[in-house]
Write a structure and sequence with these properties.
Layout lengths: L1 H17 L10 H8 L10 E5 L5 H8 L4 E6 L2 H13 L6 E5 L12 E7 L7 H9 L2 E14 L6 H10 L6 H10 L2 E8 L2 H22 L4 H20 L3 E10 L1
Parallel strand pairs: 1-2, 1-4, 2-3, 4-5
Antiparallel strand pairs: 5-7, 6-7
Helix pairs in contact: 2-3, 8-9
This protein binds S-adenosylmethionine.
The site of S-adenosylmethionine (SAM) has 22 residues, from α3.
Length: 255
Amino acid sequence: MEDITIREFEFALINEFFTELERQGPGSPEETIRALSFISNLSSKAKIADLGCGTGAQTMVLAQNTKATITALDLYAGSIDKLNVTAEKLGLQNRVKGIVGSMDNLPFRNDEFDLIWSEGAIANIGFEKGLNHWKNFLKKDGYVVITYESWFTDERPAEIEKWWVDAVPEIGTIAHNISIMQKTGYIPVAAFTLPESCWIDNYFVPQKARQEEFLKKHAGNKTVEDMIAFMRREADLYSKYKQYYGYVFYIGKKL
Ligand code: SAM
């Protein structure tokens, strides 16, 4: 019971930290559009689900570059509130709706979606488990588009291996992840790596000022101090070992 409380507290703190930032994970509008260019046949009747959407940076890019209707889902209510306000501000509220829910228990109908999108979030429930569950909600020939932490090489230094295996026990190489897509019933369409700017300029750099502000706001809070130390180590490890890993966009079509 105590464990659950601590974890929930940390989840709320992490989200309080990140919802003030433009993005909650590495990515960029350019790379979202690049991934979208592999998807054909999205008419104004098309339906997209954006899972683990956060405050919706990529959701708005999807809405502005398609005519589809988008349901964006995240576990954190604060992010969903922010996403719905942004959709309204951009005049997209008729096509974009944020809802609170969990990616591993989706509140959708079978075969409902033409496209399931998810940037930087599937590791929270597991790559294979997510692909298996999400397939139920895709139409035949529907697409799944995911960014996921991946190894770029077959071997890597022990320090970075341990860090990532602790964070994402399932982490694998690009070839391995493509084989999981095939095993779970998708035809691989494309895979490409996110450039470094998605991590550095859009993820680590914007965190710096927020970290200072957050430490001041929560002065004396050991959980916050540990959380910021973890984030700083994540950035240091990235600059040291970025040739070994990164986010990869995986695009698959349901069989
Ligand atoms: N897609 C956004 C982006 O790229 O900026 C957010 C990525 S962030 C790294 C991961 C998101 O997954 C967070 O918003 C978190 O609240 C959400 N999340 C974690 N577990 C979840 C779950 N079981 N169901 C739905 N969302 C979840």
